[in-house]
Amino acid sequence: MNSREKILSRIRNRKMMETALPDLSRKLTTWDDPIGRFRETVSAVGGHTERLSDPSLLPSVIEKLDDYQAASRVASNSFIAKLDLDDLTRSASPHSLADIDLFIADGDIGVAENGAIWVTDEKLVHNAALFITQHLILTVYGSAIVNNMHEAYEKIDPQESHFGVFISGPSKTADIEQSLVIGAHGARSLMVYIVDDSETGESE
Amino acid sequence: MNTTAENHSSKAGVFVSDSDKAHWHDSALWFVREKRDKQVNDVPEWEKLREAASAIKTHTVAQLDQYLQMFEQKATALGAKVHWAQNAREHNEIVHSILKNHGAQRVVKSKSMLTEECHLNPYLEQQGIDVVDTDLGERIVQLRKESPSHIVLPAIHIKKEEVGDLFHQHLGTDEGATDPSYLTEAARNHLREKFLAADAGITGVNFAIAETGGIVVCTNEGNADLGVTLPRLHIACMGIEKLIPRTKDLAVFLRLLARSATGQPITTYTSHFHGPQDDSELHIILLDNGRTSLRDQSDYQEALHCIRCGACMNTCPVYRRSGGHSYGTTVPGPIGSVLNPVSDSATHNSLPFACSLCGSCTDVCPIKIPLHHQLFTLRDQIRRNGNLALTKRIAMFLTGRILGSASLFRVVGRMGRWVMRGFPWLFHNRFNLWWKQRDMPPAPKQSFGAWYSANRKEKHR
After folding, report:
1. Does B386 lie in the same domain as B340?
2. Residue A69 belongs to a domain with what CATH number?
3. A31 and A112 in contact (C-beta within 8 Å)?
């Protein structure tokens, strides 16, 4: 009997009472203004947000950023922000991304309760770009902000992507004496643009 | 066999001998506990989430064989290779054989308590493989040739001055530099080189989804992600208890995990892997290493529900004041004091006594593991197995006799008060451990019972 069979038979030899899975459709916390809550949470986890009434504003807004001005290499896989930038090459090794200063990508949804943004490999040329870049910009449609993680998993299906990640704020650590330091291994800053689309409600 | 009864308390004794550092450690962890409270109070449905999480785990553990097979089938269909290991040795051999097949020499590892449990690093180093821990705290303890003292905050026992000295020696930072931002930046640059040079990335697993065959890894630093998106080989090591049935169950656990662990609403990165990334290989190792025998023991099987958030450590008055290393185990604190004695009672029988039974661990546990009940049950089991220290056995026997007889209690009480008033040094001396760092008020002349008879009894008739 191999290890697999041994482990499985050890489990089968000890029958336990079968119990039902809980119903998760209870009433859960929601917000009157999920976008407002989302912005508060992103800022609480060390990121920044800006709300834009139209995606066409993105290029000019991004080009004005200090991180953009200071960057020697900027790359973008964003479809929403129509920028004429390095869009990375599939055939190149991800190691060639080591000198990226600023990277821009699109998120599918944002979560109000924790400021997380869901990004998948379908919209990326190299997954490593999200983590190796010095600074990160993510876009998300205002209509794609959900209240909580339960709603998030109703909207996304992680198994459709080999790689998908919720990103909440910039990379951080508190491993030295519990002092919070932003910029551990991943991005040193996170800017989130919430872009109004036809389905977004009234802009503030 | 009671070498270890001295062990926790004697190691803790060394830890508290540096009183300033012990107080600093205590308050550093209490700070994390307070951050947790703030986040938890922000979620009105917190108790419902805990109940749901507990119910999901109970359901999954009952049918673990079916969920493991479902997971294996789905993960394999997605292109991952699933391996099974009964124990640490087999686990380490599998990791090594995968690395060998790829000719991988340089490995970056993100934080995984499971690989600590298996002592994977020394094993791979013996095989000539260079393993670098990439979580900042774990890198610090690796450079100090120590083990983590906390499962979420591996370097919580180390002061920034010590990190400064260590980095000066190993990373060439300025002598005497102690600024956490400066030191973190040095580690960032040092580890970037390691990420870019790595042939393989090893990660742990926070959750494995049976219905999809996917795995989820949670980090704040981004080290796991850099470690598996740069090299073409990802080895994910997980205990068989990490399974959850459905994708939507993730919502429950992800809402609980980071809030309980560090007081964040979610970790910075929550990465979902379904099969290998493009041009890469994904290997998933399912490890038993005592988990099926824990499942067999109805008194303790709920300890399998643990999601390794560390909340029980941050709140534990004994852990905070004695430090993780005094437990002498990979997983310390209340959950470690259950897991380790259950798997190896003879070695770890002092741990269930490193507990005041205050119950705070049970209150904060996001999965509602009845930790202090389990610790209490373990104490009784240790007594029944004859592993209780002789001094404790005698003390318990005598206390039982005295408390069991009203007349004996009165006599002994009178003698005690007389001795304590006349000869306090008989109690207050260096042989009585209970008097260490403690003081007592002078003993009264009469007992409460005697005082009550004289002053109140008449009036209440």
Report:
1. yes
2. 3.40.50.10420
3. yes
Shortest alpha-carbon distance between residue B255 and chain A (Å): 7
Query: What does B71-131 look like in DSSP terms, one character per residue?
Result: HHHHHHHTT-EEEEESSHHHHHHHHHHHHHHTT--EEEE---HHHHHTTHHHHHHHTT-EE
d(CA B307, CA B206): 7
Consecutive H or E run containing B410:
helix B406-422
* B307 DSSP assignment: -
| pLDDT tens figures, B242-297 | 999 999 999 999 999 999 999 999 999 999 999 999 999 999 999 999 999 999 99
For a pLDDT cut of 90, what percent of chain A falls above it? 87
Domain range enclosing B371:
1-42+310-394
Both B233 and B84 in a single domain? yes
Residue from B38, B158, B266, B294 to probe the interface with A (highest A Cβ count within 10 Å) = B266
Pairwise CB contact (< 8 Å): A185 & B245 = no
Q: Give me the interface pTM, i.e. the ipTM.
A: 0.96
Higher per-residue pLDDT: B21 or B2: B21
Q: Read off the pLDDT of each residue in A142-167 and give the average, rounded to a whole number.
A: 97
Contacts of B292 in chain A (CB under 8 A): 7, 10-11, 14
Q: Where are the alpha helices (DSSP H) in B118-222?
A: 120-126, 136-143, 160-171, 180-197
**One domain, residues B433 and B318:** no
- Give, for A189, the enclosing helix (H) or strand (E): strand A189-195
Same domain, B147 and B109: yes
Q: Is A18 part of a structural domain of the chain? A: no
What is the per-residue pLDDT across A82-129, written as a single tens digit (0 to 9) for each?
888 888 888 889 999 999 999 999 999 999 999 999 999 999 999 999
